[in-house]
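Format notes (please read before filing issues)

Several people have asked whether sequences and structure tokens are stored in separate files. They are not. Every record keeps both together, in the order shown below: the sequence lines, then the token lines. Line labels are part of the format and must not be stripped during preprocessing.
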Amino acid sequence: MSARTRLVAAVAAAALTLTVAGCGDSEKADSPDAASVTYLTSFGTFGRDAYAYVALEKGYFKEAGLNVTIKPGTGTVDVMKLIGSGQADYGPGDLSGVITTLANEKMPVRVVAAIHQRSMAGIASLEKAIDSPEKLPGASIADSSGSTNMIIFPAYAKAAGIDPKSVKFVPSSPQSLPQLLAAGSVDAIGQFAAGKPLLEKAAGGKTVTMLPYADKLPDLYGNGLLVSAAKLESNRAEVEKFTAALVKGLLYAVEHPEEAAQLLKKHDRTADEKVAAAELTEMRPYVLGDGGPAGKLDRARVEAMIKLLAGTGTLKSTPSADDIGVYDIAKP
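Then the structure lines:
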């Protein structure tokens, strides 16, 4: 079965899930009975987050009887805090970051679906400077403190057979990373795979080489959909409807990246449509993974992630899968 055929089937499955969850009557989002919820993006309004705007503009949320307000997020930990405190209802967070955060601090948040079936974390360099793990020892890598790329690196280094201490991480702000790479101030930067088009634009068209962690750690999830533990317990029906609508938008976005970029542009006039579309194209294989159900979150893989991160000394304590939350939207 081709990747495109799998994608079409996944879209159909998401649409079916949406109907099973009770959304087939196309309740109007602006009706008095519609639930108003807030969704946070992962970080800003980059192309990789365009799928939420697709779900909004294509009417998927409206069909689910939901009135959704989308606001730019500022990273996994902040999204977790806002959802846990009730200041937002839904948002994505990198599962490695979620696990690490919950190992250090109890937050009433749960992951209910997988946005990325494979982690997009990795290392970016210019002109193939670092195109294999063997070239990492001695390299200087800029990244924001506590980023997913830094959190996962010890596990990646162990899997790649190199000493994690042989690499020097340079703490830097997320906004400065493209410029640091373009200027040659560091050998590489931590970056999600979807960020490659933006980096190449910042580097004046130079080729950016990605070293994806998923090559050595194929079982790691990337972003997952977060919701508060209280909402999952008290209003699971809404969670089901929202999740199915968002995943439907996700699948549409990666199949129609140019249209998705245009819809994003309606909400952020500063968005570069070409870069946004390219980001979605880069993200597509990470959303689809091995071709299984989009959005699926498998308990065994979550437990494997916890064990992997704990094995590198990254976690101060070891949360259980129940602390993370495993909820399979494929089941009505």
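For reference, the curators noted about this record: The two ends are 26 Å apart (CA to CA). The longest helix spans residues 3-23.
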